[in-house]
Amino acid sequence: MYLASQGADVIKVESVQRPDVWRANHTAPILGDRWMDRGLLWQATNLDKRDITLDASNDQGRALLKQLCEGADIFIENYASHVVEKQGLGYEDLKAINPGIIMVRAPSFGNEGPWKSYVGWGDVFEQVSGFATVTGYPDSRPQTPGGYMDPIVAMHLTTAIIAALEYRDRTGEGQLIEVPQSEVGMAMAGAILIADQFGYPPERPGNRAPGYAPQGVYRTGDAEKTYIALSIRDDQEWQSLIAMVGMPTLDAFAASGLKERHEHHDEIDAIILAWTLAHPANDLLSRLQSAGIPASRLLKPVDYNIEPQLVDREYYQELDHPLSGPRLFPTFPMHFSYEATRKVHSRPAPTLGQHNEEILRGELGVTEAKYADLIASNVIGTEPLQS
To answer: Is the dihedral of CA 346, 352, 354, 355 positive or negative?
Structure first.
């Protein structure tokens, strides 16, 4: 989606035998007719793409996919190891028909080694990389961060693709890129590995951090459940907070440095909570920010599209989906001076096989009779064969 939003013509290839699993992610029981096109996660992560269905296990479907690759710059796959080779779609196969093609492979654990046949999801990679080790509270079991890896892997793929395109511009050569998703997680968790080597085994800190104290999330006095987060970075901010809270019980910790504040963090948290419960969030944030103390309200999803900061910066863009109607979608945090607007998205997420005819007939030259035969034999389609 990152590439598509910047103008790349991204064609997502699925099949009616096995549509993308994100289409069905917690949506089938609740979204009714054509649930596979209404999924919230699907729509949020597939903006700006075109979509076709092709059964690559079928000779006709595989031939059409290869024909599509003849004019492609990039081919991306994230199947289990050696699936594409078995279908005749490995790098050497594609290079033979398009020497300049850049093939990007994103297997779970790499295409070599004892784990090469293992499959996995984002939460699996979070466990393997060590992120779960440091997520959660000290007295609880490890927690999965919950989807952290998916966008991080996508950004690594995007960076690798841009580098490969630049290399091809200089040399005329395509190449094969392998980005094991588990290794992306391990690369991002480098600090955990280094800390352990220096004798500081990672701990689950909850809302706390070694270099800040107090730090936490506190409920406020608003009628609805509203919370604020704050961090005290140094002794000066600590003195400012003590003066602001104005409670003798907190004055007892006035001379406490970082180490002592960590040792008494639970007691300090209880005092801060008593203070925040007595004031509305807006008042607390105004006072904390005016004193230079990092603080913010915890936004709920329902607040996102009305938050003045985001509205003023045109962070959201409305797109009209043919089935779901108009919805707001995030733009991207990368701002380019050549863009007159932040509204970078050109189209909503595609329905299943939405562009079959446009691409297969209009661009690959499939005849009307052949197209009808492909539908009849389930090589292509717009309805999943299994609901």
So the answer is: positive
